[in-house]
Design goal:
- The complex is a heterodimer of chains A (about 375) and B (about 240).
- Chain A is built from 11 helices and 18 strands.
- Chain A has about 375 residues and is of the alpha+beta class.
- Chain A is globular and about 60 Å long.
- Chain B has about 240 residues and is of the alpha/beta class.
- Helix content of chain B is about 10%, strand content about 30%.
- The termini of chain B are far apart.
- Classes of the chains: A alpha+beta (about 375), B alpha/beta (about 240).
- At the A-B interface, helix 11 of A face loops of B.
Chain lengths: ~375, ~240
Protein backbone atom coordinates (compact mmCIF):
# COMPACT_ATOMS: atom_id res chain seq x y z
CA UNK A 1 0.00 0.00 0.00
CA UNK A 2 1.18 3.50 -0.72
CA UNK A 3 1.70 5.62 2.34
CA UNK A 4 0.56 9.06 3.20
CA UNK A 5 2.59 11.53 1.17
CA UNK A 6 2.85 9.18 -1.79
CA UNK A 7 -0.73 9.37 -2.90
CA UNK A 8 -3.40 12.02 -3.01
CA UNK A 9 -7.07 11.13 -3.14
CA UNK A 10 -9.25 14.14 -3.98
CA UNK A 11 -12.37 16.39 4.54
CA UNK A 12 -15.49 16.17 7.30
CA UNK A 13 -13.95 15.73 10.68
CA UNK A 14 -14.69 16.24 14.35
CA UNK A 15 -12.72 18.27 16.85
CA UNK A 16 -13.16 18.84 20.55
CA UNK A 17 -11.23 20.24 23.49
CA UNK A 18 -11.40 20.75 27.24
CA UNK A 19 -9.38 23.35 29.14
CA UNK A 20 -9.17 24.14 32.84
CA UNK A 21 -8.10 27.76 33.32
CA UNK A 22 -7.21 27.00 36.93
CA UNK A 23 -4.93 24.20 35.78
CA UNK A 24 -6.99 21.42 37.35
CA UNK A 25 -6.26 17.87 36.25
CA UNK A 26 -8.79 16.53 33.76
CA UNK A 27 -8.88 12.79 33.17
CA UNK A 28 -8.40 11.77 29.52
CA UNK A 29 -11.62 9.73 29.51
CA UNK A 30 -13.67 12.95 29.43
CA UNK A 31 -12.36 14.03 26.04
CA UNK A 32 -12.90 10.50 24.72
CA UNK A 33 -16.54 10.67 25.84
CA UNK A 34 -16.95 14.02 24.13
CA UNK A 35 -15.68 12.56 20.84
CA UNK A 36 -17.87 9.48 21.10
CA UNK A 37 -21.11 11.35 20.28
CA UNK A 38 -19.55 12.75 17.09
CA UNK A 39 -18.68 9.24 15.84
CA UNK A 40 -20.39 9.80 12.49
CA UNK A 41 -18.18 12.76 11.63
CA UNK A 42 -15.21 10.36 11.25
CA UNK A 43 -14.78 7.30 9.08
CA UNK A 44 -12.31 5.30 11.15
CA UNK A 45 -9.24 6.33 9.16
CA UNK A 46 -7.62 8.36 11.90
CA UNK A 47 -8.08 9.90 15.31
CA UNK A 48 -5.92 11.38 17.98
CA UNK A 49 -5.54 13.38 21.14
CA UNK A 50 -3.12 15.89 22.65
CA UNK A 51 -2.86 16.19 26.42
CA UNK A 52 -1.11 19.07 28.21
CA UNK A 53 0.28 18.83 31.73
CA UNK A 54 0.32 15.03 31.51
CA UNK A 55 4.01 14.45 32.34
CA UNK A 56 4.62 16.56 35.48
CA UNK A 57 7.38 14.21 36.67
CA UNK A 58 9.34 14.87 33.47
CA UNK A 59 8.16 18.41 32.75
CA UNK A 60 11.67 19.73 31.99
CA UNK A 61 12.35 17.11 29.31
CA UNK A 62 11.17 16.85 25.75
CA UNK A 63 8.79 13.91 25.44
CA UNK A 64 9.30 12.21 22.07
CA UNK A 65 6.55 9.86 20.92
CA UNK A 66 7.81 7.82 17.99
CA UNK A 67 6.29 5.33 15.54
CA UNK A 68 8.64 2.66 14.18
CA UNK A 69 7.79 0.37 11.28
CA UNK A 70 10.37 -2.19 12.43
CA UNK A 71 13.09 -2.78 15.00
CA UNK A 72 15.83 -1.72 12.61
CA UNK A 73 14.29 1.77 12.44
CA UNK A 74 14.21 1.89 16.23
CA UNK A 75 17.87 0.93 16.49
CA UNK A 76 18.90 3.51 13.94
CA UNK A 77 16.76 6.22 15.55
CA UNK A 78 17.98 5.45 19.07
CA UNK A 79 21.55 5.65 17.84
CA UNK A 80 20.80 9.15 16.52
CA UNK A 81 19.03 10.13 19.74
CA UNK A 82 21.93 8.94 21.88
CA UNK A 83 24.34 11.04 19.84
CA UNK A 84 22.26 14.21 20.27
CA UNK A 85 20.31 13.85 23.50
CA UNK A 86 20.56 12.76 27.08
CA UNK A 87 17.86 10.09 27.33
CA UNK A 88 16.39 10.18 30.84
CA UNK A 89 13.77 7.51 30.31
CA UNK A 90 12.53 5.32 27.50
CA UNK A 91 9.70 2.81 27.24
CA UNK A 92 7.00 1.48 24.99
CA UNK A 93 3.85 3.59 25.26
CA UNK A 94 1.35 1.38 27.12
CA UNK A 95 -1.55 0.35 24.91
CA UNK A 96 -4.57 -1.86 25.29
CA UNK A 97 -5.14 -4.32 22.46
CA UNK A 98 -8.53 -3.86 20.89
CA UNK A 99 -9.97 -5.49 17.76
CA UNK A 100 -10.84 -2.00 16.49
CA UNK A 101 -7.18 -0.99 16.19
CA UNK A 102 -4.95 -3.15 14.03
CA UNK A 103 -1.58 -3.02 12.28
CA UNK A 104 -0.04 -0.85 14.94
CA UNK A 105 3.59 0.18 14.50
CA UNK A 106 6.05 -0.02 17.40
CA UNK A 107 5.18 2.96 19.60
CA UNK A 108 7.88 4.31 21.88
CA UNK A 109 8.32 7.24 24.24
CA UNK A 110 11.55 8.98 25.25
CA UNK A 111 12.14 11.78 27.73
CA UNK A 112 15.20 13.65 26.54
CA UNK A 113 17.33 16.75 26.93
CA UNK A 114 19.73 17.98 24.22
CA UNK A 115 23.36 17.13 24.95
CA UNK A 116 24.99 20.43 25.98
CA UNK A 117 28.05 19.81 23.80
CA UNK A 118 25.96 19.04 20.70
CA UNK A 119 23.70 22.01 21.35
CA UNK A 120 26.62 24.41 21.74
CA UNK A 121 28.26 23.00 18.63
CA UNK A 122 25.08 23.56 16.60
CA UNK A 123 24.93 27.28 17.51
CA UNK A 124 21.16 27.00 17.54
CA UNK A 125 18.74 27.82 20.30
CA UNK A 126 17.48 24.76 22.11
CA UNK A 127 14.05 24.60 20.49
CA UNK A 128 15.42 25.01 16.99
CA UNK A 129 17.95 22.26 17.71
CA UNK A 130 15.14 19.91 18.77
CA UNK A 131 13.00 20.80 15.73
CA UNK A 132 15.87 20.14 13.34
CA UNK A 133 16.59 16.80 14.96
CA UNK A 134 12.94 15.80 14.60
CA UNK A 135 12.78 16.85 10.94
CA UNK A 136 15.99 14.97 10.31
CA UNK A 137 14.68 11.75 11.85
CA UNK A 138 11.34 12.04 10.04
CA UNK A 139 12.88 12.64 6.65
CA UNK A 140 16.07 10.57 6.82
CA UNK A 141 15.47 7.51 8.97
CA UNK A 142 13.20 5.19 7.02
CA UNK A 143 10.46 3.74 9.19
CA UNK A 144 10.84 6.21 12.08
CA UNK A 145 8.40 9.05 12.69
CA UNK A 146 8.39 11.41 15.67
CA UNK A 147 4.80 12.54 16.15
CA UNK A 148 5.12 14.36 19.46
CA UNK A 149 8.08 16.37 20.73
CA UNK A 150 6.93 18.87 23.38
CA UNK A 151 7.53 19.26 27.08
CA UNK A 152 4.90 18.10 29.56
CA UNK A 153 2.53 17.25 26.72
CA UNK A 154 1.92 14.35 24.42
CA UNK A 155 0.13 13.35 21.26
CA UNK A 156 -1.60 9.98 20.95
CA UNK A 157 -2.88 9.05 17.51
CA UNK A 158 -3.76 6.06 15.37
CA UNK A 159 -5.89 4.78 12.53
CA UNK A 160 -9.32 4.11 14.00
CA UNK A 161 -12.36 5.87 15.43
CA UNK A 162 -11.72 8.41 18.21
CA UNK A 163 -13.31 6.36 20.99
CA UNK A 164 -11.28 3.28 20.01
CA UNK A 165 -8.04 5.24 19.78
CA UNK A 166 -8.67 6.71 23.25
CA UNK A 167 -9.18 3.22 24.65
CA UNK A 168 -6.14 1.86 22.80
CA UNK A 169 -3.84 4.46 24.37
CA UNK A 170 -5.48 4.06 27.82
CA UNK A 171 -6.14 7.79 28.07
CA UNK A 172 -8.14 7.24 31.26
CA UNK A 173 -4.72 6.77 32.90
CA UNK A 174 -3.54 10.30 32.03
CA UNK A 175 -4.52 13.63 33.55
CA UNK A 176 -3.84 17.13 32.25
CA UNK A 177 -5.17 20.70 32.25
CA UNK A 178 -5.95 20.64 28.53
CA UNK A 179 -7.02 18.04 25.99
CA UNK A 180 -7.66 18.41 22.29
CA UNK A 181 -9.03 15.70 20.04
CA UNK A 182 -9.69 14.86 16.45
CA UNK A 183 -11.76 12.34 14.51
CA UNK A 184 -10.70 12.04 10.90
CA UNK A 185 -12.58 11.73 7.64
CA UNK A 186 -9.68 11.99 5.19
CA UNK A 187 -10.56 13.08 1.70
CA UNK A 188 -7.14 13.73 0.23
CA UNK A 189 -4.87 11.04 1.61
CA UNK A 190 -5.38 7.37 2.49
CA UNK A 191 -5.03 7.60 6.25
CA UNK A 192 -1.85 6.50 8.00
CA UNK A 193 -0.91 6.54 11.69
CA UNK A 194 1.49 9.43 11.24
CA UNK A 195 -1.04 11.37 9.18
CA UNK A 196 -3.71 11.33 11.90
CA UNK A 197 -4.16 14.52 13.91
CA UNK A 198 -2.99 16.17 16.09
CA UNK A 199 0.07 17.35 14.23
CA UNK A 200 2.62 18.65 16.66
CA UNK A 201 5.89 20.55 16.70
CA UNK A 202 7.48 21.03 20.12
CA UNK A 203 4.61 21.85 22.50
CA UNK A 204 2.33 23.23 19.80
CA UNK A 205 -0.29 20.88 18.38
CA UNK A 206 -3.02 21.34 15.79
CA UNK A 207 -6.26 19.49 15.12
CA UNK A 208 -8.15 20.55 12.05
CA UNK A 209 -11.54 20.03 10.45
CA UNK A 210 -11.59 21.27 6.92
CA UNK A 211 -9.94 21.32 3.54
CA UNK A 212 -7.74 24.28 2.78
CA UNK A 213 -7.43 25.49 -0.77
CA UNK A 214 -4.21 27.45 -0.27
CA UNK A 215 -2.10 24.36 0.53
CA UNK A 216 0.43 24.70 -2.25
CA UNK A 217 0.89 28.46 -1.88
CA UNK A 218 1.39 28.01 1.87
CA UNK A 219 3.71 25.02 1.38
CA UNK A 220 5.97 26.78 -1.13
CA UNK A 221 6.41 29.70 1.25
CA UNK A 222 6.95 27.76 4.46
CA UNK A 223 9.45 25.33 2.91
CA UNK A 224 11.76 28.32 2.35
CA UNK A 225 12.32 28.30 6.12
CA UNK A 226 13.53 24.72 6.45
CA UNK A 227 10.22 22.97 7.02
CA UNK A 228 9.46 19.89 4.93
CA UNK A 229 5.85 19.12 4.08
CA UNK A 230 6.09 15.38 3.58
CA UNK A 231 2.54 14.20 4.12
CA UNK A 232 0.47 16.22 1.59
CA UNK A 233 -2.02 16.98 4.33
CA UNK A 234 -3.13 20.51 4.96
CA UNK A 235 -2.89 20.18 8.73
CA UNK A 236 0.86 19.64 8.52
CA UNK A 237 1.35 22.95 6.74
CA UNK A 238 -0.93 24.76 9.24
CA UNK A 239 1.22 23.39 12.08
CA UNK A 240 4.42 24.67 10.47
CA UNK A 241 2.89 28.08 9.71
CA UNK A 242 1.85 28.58 13.32
CA UNK A 243 5.23 27.36 14.58
CA UNK A 244 7.00 29.76 12.21
CA UNK A 245 4.89 32.79 13.12
CA UNK A 246 4.86 32.28 16.88
CA UNK A 247 8.25 30.75 17.62
CA UNK A 248 10.44 32.25 14.91
CA UNK A 249 8.74 35.53 14.08
CA UNK A 250 7.67 35.88 17.74
CA UNK A 251 4.17 37.04 16.87
CA UNK A 252 1.32 36.58 19.32
CA UNK A 253 -1.40 34.00 18.79
CA UNK A 254 -3.81 36.89 18.10
CA UNK A 255 -1.56 38.25 15.34
CA UNK A 256 -1.07 34.76 13.95
CA UNK A 257 -4.85 34.39 13.67
CA UNK A 258 -5.07 37.73 11.87
CA UNK A 259 -2.56 36.48 9.30
CA UNK A 260 -3.93 33.01 8.59
CA UNK A 261 -7.59 34.06 8.77
CA UNK A 262 -7.05 37.69 7.77
CA UNK A 263 -10.10 39.97 7.66
CA UNK A 264 -11.34 40.87 4.18
CA UNK A 265 -10.01 44.14 2.75
CA UNK A 266 -13.57 45.47 2.89
CA UNK A 267 -13.67 44.71 6.61
CA UNK A 268 -10.23 46.23 7.22
CA UNK A 269 -11.44 49.41 5.49
CA UNK A 270 -14.03 49.95 8.24
CA UNK A 271 -11.41 49.98 11.06
CA UNK A 272 -9.73 52.95 12.76
CA UNK A 273 -6.59 54.26 10.98
CA UNK A 274 -4.17 52.64 13.48
CA UNK A 275 -5.93 49.28 13.40
CA UNK A 276 -6.19 49.47 9.62
CA UNK A 277 -2.44 50.08 9.32
CA UNK A 278 -1.69 47.17 11.64
CA UNK A 279 -3.97 44.71 9.80
CA UNK A 280 -2.71 45.84 6.39
CA UNK A 281 0.87 45.34 7.58
CA UNK A 282 0.16 41.78 8.69
CA UNK A 283 -1.70 40.91 5.46
CA UNK A 284 0.97 42.43 3.22
CA UNK A 285 3.99 41.05 5.06
CA UNK A 286 2.69 37.50 5.32
CA UNK A 287 0.45 37.38 2.26
CA UNK A 288 1.51 33.82 1.41
CA UNK A 289 0.43 32.55 4.81
CA UNK A 290 -3.23 33.46 4.35
CA UNK A 291 -5.12 30.19 4.60
CA UNK A 292 -8.18 29.99 2.39
CA UNK A 293 -10.88 27.36 2.19
CA UNK A 294 -12.83 25.86 5.06
CA UNK A 295 -11.16 25.16 8.37
CA UNK A 296 -11.82 25.03 12.06
CA UNK A 297 -8.71 24.40 14.11
CA UNK A 298 -7.74 23.96 17.73
CA UNK A 299 -4.17 24.90 18.54
CA UNK A 300 -2.80 23.63 21.83
CA UNK A 301 0.33 25.29 23.22
CA UNK A 302 2.17 25.48 26.54
CA UNK A 303 -0.37 26.99 28.95
CA UNK A 304 -3.04 27.80 26.38
CA UNK A 305 -5.44 26.90 23.64
CA UNK A 306 -6.59 28.76 20.53
CA UNK A 307 -9.68 28.02 18.46
CA UNK A 308 -10.07 29.56 15.02
CA UNK A 309 -12.45 29.32 12.08
CA UNK A 310 -11.76 30.36 8.51
CA UNK A 311 -12.99 33.88 7.82
CA UNK A 312 -16.02 32.69 5.87
CA UNK A 313 -16.82 30.26 8.67
CA UNK A 314 -17.32 27.24 6.48
CA UNK A 315 -16.99 24.83 9.41
CA UNK A 316 -18.89 24.67 12.67
CA UNK A 317 -17.49 25.43 16.10
CA UNK A 318 -19.09 26.18 19.45
CA UNK A 319 -17.61 27.30 22.74
CA UNK A 320 -19.08 26.42 26.15
CA UNK A 321 -17.98 27.80 29.50
CA UNK A 322 -18.65 26.55 33.01
CA UNK A 323 -16.77 28.04 35.97
CA UNK A 324 -13.07 27.83 35.02
CA UNK A 325 -13.68 25.21 32.34
CA UNK A 326 -13.76 25.97 28.61
CA UNK A 327 -15.10 23.46 26.10
CA UNK A 328 -14.74 23.92 22.34
CA UNK A 329 -16.13 21.44 19.82
CA UNK A 330 -17.50 20.95 16.32
CA UNK A 331 -20.94 20.26 17.78
CA UNK A 332 -22.75 21.44 20.90
CA UNK A 333 -23.77 17.87 21.75
CA UNK A 334 -20.09 16.95 22.27
CA UNK A 335 -19.94 19.56 25.03
CA UNK A 336 -23.35 18.88 26.58
CA UNK A 337 -22.63 15.17 26.88
CA UNK A 338 -19.76 15.85 29.30
CA UNK A 339 -21.12 19.10 30.82
CA UNK A 340 -24.91 19.40 30.50
CA UNK A 341 -25.20 22.66 32.44
CA UNK A 342 -23.13 25.50 30.99
CA UNK A 343 -22.82 29.11 32.13
CA UNK A 344 -22.44 30.29 28.55
CA UNK A 345 -22.52 28.83 25.04
CA UNK A 346 -21.64 30.73 21.87
CA UNK A 347 -20.28 30.42 18.34
CA UNK A 348 -17.18 32.45 17.45
CA UNK A 349 -17.38 34.43 14.22
CA UNK A 350 -15.31 33.52 11.18
CA UNK A 351 -11.71 34.59 11.73
CA UNK A 352 -12.38 35.42 15.40
CA UNK A 353 -9.72 33.68 17.48
CA UNK A 354 -10.78 32.35 20.86
CA UNK A 355 -7.72 32.13 23.10
CA UNK A 356 -7.77 30.70 26.60
CA UNK A 357 -4.81 30.62 28.95
CA UNK A 358 -4.03 29.30 32.38
CA UNK A 359 -4.71 31.66 35.29
CA UNK A 360 -1.21 31.54 36.67
CA UNK A 361 0.03 28.06 36.08
CA UNK A 362 -0.81 24.42 36.55
CA UNK A 363 -2.21 23.14 39.84
CA UNK B 1 -44.53 8.11 22.79
CA UNK B 2 -41.56 9.13 24.93
CA UNK B 3 -38.06 8.14 23.84
CA UNK B 4 -34.99 8.63 26.00
CA UNK B 5 -32.36 9.10 23.32
CA UNK B 6 -29.14 9.40 25.36
CA UNK B 7 -26.29 8.46 23.07
CA UNK B 8 -28.41 6.10 20.92
CA UNK B 9 -27.40 6.08 17.24
CA UNK B 10 -29.48 8.28 14.95
CA UNK B 11 -30.64 5.38 12.79
CA UNK B 12 -32.23 3.66 15.74
CA UNK B 13 -33.83 6.84 17.05
CA UNK B 14 -35.23 7.87 13.69
CA UNK B 15 -36.63 4.40 13.05
CA UNK B 16 -38.45 4.57 16.39
CA UNK B 17 -39.93 7.95 15.49
CA UNK B 18 -41.01 6.81 12.01
CA UNK B 19 -42.50 3.54 13.24
CA UNK B 20 -44.38 5.08 16.14
CA UNK B 21 -48.16 5.09 15.74
CA UNK B 22 -48.43 8.06 18.08
CA UNK B 23 -48.84 11.49 16.62
CA UNK B 24 -47.06 13.05 19.61
CA UNK B 25 -43.43 12.03 20.09
CA UNK B 26 -41.25 13.34 22.91
CA UNK B 27 -37.48 12.82 22.82
CA UNK B 28 -35.65 13.29 26.11
CA UNK B 29 -31.90 13.59 26.71
CA UNK B 30 -31.11 14.14 23.06
CA UNK B 31 -27.36 14.27 22.33
CA UNK B 32 -26.61 15.15 18.75
CA UNK B 33 -28.62 12.55 16.80
CA UNK B 34 -28.80 13.71 13.20
CA UNK B 35 -31.69 13.90 10.72
CA UNK B 36 -34.45 13.83 13.33
CA UNK B 37 -37.84 14.13 11.62
CA UNK B 38 -36.35 14.12 8.14
CA UNK B 39 -39.03 13.97 5.45
CA UNK B 40 -41.65 13.50 8.15
CA UNK B 41 -45.32 14.45 8.04
CA UNK B 42 -48.26 13.97 10.40
CA UNK B 43 -46.33 14.03 13.68
CA UNK B 44 -45.51 16.52 16.40
CA UNK B 45 -42.04 16.04 17.84
CA UNK B 46 -40.79 17.66 21.03
CA UNK B 47 -37.05 17.45 21.69
CA UNK B 48 -35.45 18.05 25.08
CA UNK B 49 -31.69 18.39 24.63
CA UNK B 50 -29.46 19.09 21.65
CA UNK B 51 -30.61 17.55 18.35
CA UNK B 52 -27.90 16.90 15.79
CA UNK B 53 -27.29 18.38 12.36
CA UNK B 54 -29.95 18.43 9.63
CA UNK B 55 -32.86 18.46 12.07
CA UNK B 56 -36.09 18.36 10.04
CA UNK B 57 -34.33 18.02 6.68
CA UNK B 58 -36.94 17.66 3.92
CA UNK B 59 -39.60 18.09 6.62
CA UNK B 60 -42.96 17.55 4.99
CA UNK B 61 -45.64 18.85 7.35
CA UNK B 62 -44.59 17.64 10.79
CA UNK B 63 -43.89 20.09 13.60
CA UNK B 64 -40.71 20.03 15.68
CA UNK B 65 -40.26 21.89 18.95
CA UNK B 66 -36.77 22.04 20.47
CA UNK B 67 -36.26 22.86 24.13
CA UNK B 68 -32.59 23.79 23.81
CA UNK B 69 -30.36 24.86 20.95
CA UNK B 70 -30.29 23.34 17.47
CA UNK B 71 -27.06 22.59 15.59
CA UNK B 72 -26.31 23.14 11.87
CA UNK B 73 -28.59 22.99 8.83
CA UNK B 74 -32.01 22.71 10.47
CA UNK B 75 -34.87 22.53 7.96
CA UNK B 76 -32.51 21.75 5.07
CA UNK B 77 -34.71 21.78 1.95
CA UNK B 78 -37.81 21.53 4.14
CA UNK B 79 -41.07 21.52 2.24
CA UNK B 80 -43.82 22.08 4.78
CA UNK B 81 -44.32 22.15 8.55
CA UNK B 82 -42.77 24.08 11.40
CA UNK B 83 -39.58 24.02 13.44
CA UNK B 84 -39.49 26.01 16.69
CA UNK B 85 -36.18 26.42 18.55
CA UNK B 86 -36.38 27.71 22.12
CA UNK B 87 -32.75 28.80 21.99
CA UNK B 88 -30.30 29.44 19.15
CA UNK B 89 -29.63 27.60 15.92
CA UNK B 90 -26.34 26.84 14.18
CA UNK B 91 -25.08 27.62 10.68
CA UNK B 92 -27.15 27.25 7.50
CA UNK B 93 -30.52 27.45 9.28
CA UNK B 94 -33.24 26.81 6.68
CA UNK B 95 -30.70 25.87 4.00
CA UNK B 96 -32.49 25.76 0.60
CA UNK B 97 -35.83 25.77 2.41
CA UNK B 98 -38.80 25.82 0.06
CA UNK B 99 -41.85 25.84 2.36
CA UNK B 100 -43.02 25.91 5.97
CA UNK B 101 -41.62 28.01 8.77
CA UNK B 102 -38.74 28.12 11.26
CA UNK B 103 -38.85 30.16 14.45
CA UNK B 104 -35.63 30.69 16.42
CA UNK B 105 -36.02 32.40 19.78
CA UNK B 106 -32.46 33.73 20.02
CA UNK B 107 -29.67 33.80 17.42
CA UNK B 108 -28.95 31.96 14.20
CA UNK B 109 -25.43 31.18 12.92
CA UNK B 110 -23.88 31.99 9.55
CA UNK B 111 -25.79 31.60 6.24
CA UNK B 112 -29.34 31.44 7.58
CA UNK B 113 -31.76 31.17 4.68
CA UNK B 114 -29.07 30.46 2.10
CA UNK B 115 -30.65 29.39 -1.22
CA UNK B 116 -34.15 29.74 0.20
CA UNK B 117 -36.75 29.70 -2.55
CA UNK B 118 -40.50 29.88 -3.22
CA UNK B 119 -42.70 28.36 -5.88
CA UNK B 120 -46.46 28.75 -6.50
CA UNK B 121 -48.22 28.31 -3.15
CA UNK B 122 -45.00 27.46 -1.30
CA UNK B 123 -43.27 30.35 0.43
CA UNK B 124 -40.95 29.61 3.36
CA UNK B 125 -40.48 31.88 6.37
CA UNK B 126 -37.64 32.11 8.91
CA UNK B 127 -38.07 34.29 12.01
CA UNK B 128 -34.99 34.92 14.16
CA UNK B 129 -35.55 36.74 17.45
CA UNK B 130 -31.98 37.83 18.15
CA UNK B 131 -29.24 38.27 15.56
CA UNK B 132 -28.11 36.34 12.49
CA UNK B 133 -24.51 35.69 11.44
CA UNK B 134 -22.83 36.73 8.19
CA UNK B 135 -24.22 35.80 4.77
CA UNK B 136 -27.85 35.97 5.88
CA UNK B 137 -30.04 35.21 2.86
CA UNK B 138 -27.07 34.44 0.60
CA UNK B 139 -28.45 33.57 -2.87
CA UNK B 140 -31.97 33.93 -1.50
CA UNK B 141 -34.47 33.30 -4.30
CA UNK B 142 -37.77 33.53 -2.46
CA UNK B 143 -39.62 33.51 0.85
CA UNK B 144 -39.21 35.75 3.88
CA UNK B 145 -36.45 36.09 6.45
CA UNK B 146 -37.27 38.19 9.52
CA UNK B 147 -34.61 39.17 12.06
CA UNK B 148 -35.91 41.03 15.11
CA UNK B 149 -32.62 41.97 16.79
CA UNK B 150 -34.08 41.68 20.28
CA UNK B 151 -31.42 42.79 22.77
CA UNK B 152 -29.23 44.29 20.03
CA UNK B 153 -30.00 47.96 20.89
CA UNK B 154 -31.12 48.90 17.39
CA UNK B 155 -27.86 47.99 15.63
CA UNK B 156 -28.21 45.95 12.41
CA UNK B 157 -28.86 42.39 13.65
CA UNK B 158 -26.74 40.74 10.97
CA UNK B 159 -23.05 40.06 10.27
CA UNK B 160 -21.19 40.90 7.07
CA UNK B 161 -22.33 40.25 3.50
CA UNK B 162 -26.06 40.14 4.17
CA UNK B 163 -28.06 39.35 1.02
CA UNK B 164 -25.03 38.56 -1.17
CA UNK B 165 -26.32 37.07 -4.42
CA UNK B 166 -29.95 37.58 -3.33
CA UNK B 167 -32.29 37.52 -6.31
CA UNK B 168 -35.74 36.96 -4.87
CA UNK B 169 -37.80 37.06 -1.68
CA UNK B 170 -37.53 39.58 1.14
CA UNK B 171 -35.48 40.14 4.27
CA UNK B 172 -36.97 42.22 7.09
CA UNK B 173 -34.58 43.66 9.68
CA UNK B 174 -35.63 45.41 12.89
CA UNK B 175 -32.98 48.07 13.57
CA UNK B 176 -32.34 51.83 13.55
CA UNK B 177 -30.01 51.78 10.54
CA UNK B 178 -29.63 49.26 7.72
CA UNK B 179 -26.42 47.21 7.36
CA UNK B 180 -23.61 49.34 5.92
CA UNK B 181 -22.20 46.78 3.49
CA UNK B 182 -25.22 45.67 1.45
CA UNK B 183 -24.31 44.52 -2.05
CA UNK B 184 -25.29 46.62 -5.05
CA UNK B 185 -28.01 44.26 -6.25
CA UNK B 186 -29.97 44.61 -3.00
CA UNK B 187 -32.17 47.63 -2.39
CA UNK B 188 -33.18 48.64 1.10
CA UNK B 189 -36.21 50.67 2.14
CA UNK B 190 -37.57 51.63 5.52
CA UNK B 191 -40.79 49.66 5.96
CA UNK B 192 -44.02 51.66 5.88
CA UNK B 193 -46.92 50.42 7.96
CA UNK B 194 -48.52 48.94 4.83
CA UNK B 195 -45.32 47.24 3.74
CA UNK B 196 -45.01 45.67 7.18
CA UNK B 197 -48.47 44.08 6.95
CA UNK B 198 -47.35 40.92 5.18
CA UNK B 199 -44.79 40.25 7.95
CA UNK B 200 -47.10 40.94 10.92
CA UNK B 201 -48.65 37.44 11.18
CA UNK B 202 -45.19 35.90 11.52
CA UNK B 203 -43.92 38.46 14.03
CA UNK B 204 -47.10 37.94 16.07
CA UNK B 205 -46.59 34.18 15.87
CA UNK B 206 -43.02 34.61 17.16
CA UNK B 207 -44.22 36.72 20.11
CA UNK B 208 -46.95 34.21 20.82
CA UNK B 209 -44.69 31.15 20.75
CA UNK B 210 -42.00 32.58 22.97
CA UNK B 211 -44.13 34.77 25.26
CA UNK B 212 -42.60 38.03 24.05
CA UNK B 213 -44.70 41.22 24.19
CA UNK B 214 -45.34 42.49 20.67
CA UNK B 215 -45.75 46.09 21.82
CA UNK B 216 -42.04 46.65 22.27
CA UNK B 217 -41.30 44.84 19.01
CA UNK B 218 -43.37 47.09 16.77
CA UNK B 219 -42.10 50.22 18.50
CA UNK B 220 -39.06 50.32 16.20
CA UNK B 221 -37.91 50.97 12.66
CA UNK B 222 -37.89 48.09 10.20
CA UNK B 223 -35.98 47.80 6.93
CA UNK B 224 -36.94 45.63 3.98
CA UNK B 225 -34.22 44.19 1.72
CA UNK B 226 -35.17 43.05 -1.77
CA UNK B 227 -33.24 42.41 -4.95
CA UNK B 228 -33.48 45.53 -7.08
CA UNK B 229 -35.49 45.32 -10.25
CA UNK B 230 -32.43 45.83 -12.42
CA UNK B 231 -31.09 42.53 -11.14
CA UNK B 232 -30.42 40.30 -14.14
CA UNK B 233 -30.86 37.06 -12.20
CA UNK B 234 -34.34 37.88 -10.99
CA UNK B 235 -36.23 35.91 -13.58
CA UNK B 236 -33.60 33.39 -14.42
CA UNK B 237 -35.08 30.53 -12.44
CA UNK B 238 -38.72 31.25 -11.74
CA UNK B 239 -41.25 34.04 -11.50
CA UNK B 240 -41.10 35.31 -7.96
Amino acid sequence: MKKEGEIRIPAGCAISSIFSKNGKNICGDRIVNSMRVMHDRSNGLGAGYAGYGIYPQYKDYYAFHIFYDHTKAREECEQFLEMHFDIINLSKIPVKKTPAITDEPLIWRYFVAPLPTKLAESQLDEKEFVVRCCIRINTQITGAYIFSSGKNMGVFKAVGYPEDVGEFYRLDEYEGYCWTAHGRYPTNTPGWWGGAHPFAMLDMSVVHNGEISSYDANRRYIEMFGYKCTLLTDTEVITYIIDYLTRREKLTMEETAQIIAAPFWSTIATKSPEERARLEYLRDTFASLLITGPFSILVGFDGGLMALNDRLKLRSMVVGEKDDMVYIASEECAIRVIEPELDKLWSPKGGEAVIVRLNGGVK
Amino acid sequence: MIITAGTMHFQELNAMIRDSRDREVIIDKCFGQRYIGSGLSGKNITINGTPGNALGAYLNGATINVNGNAQDAIGDTMNEGEIVVNGSSGDATGYAMRGGSIFVKENAGYRAGIHMKSYKDKSPVIVIGGCAGSFLGEYQAGGKIIVLGIGNDGAPPVGYFCGTGMHGGKILLRCNTPPADLPAQVCVTEATKDALDEFVPYIDAYCDKFGVSSVGIYDSKFYILEPNSGNPYKRLYTQN
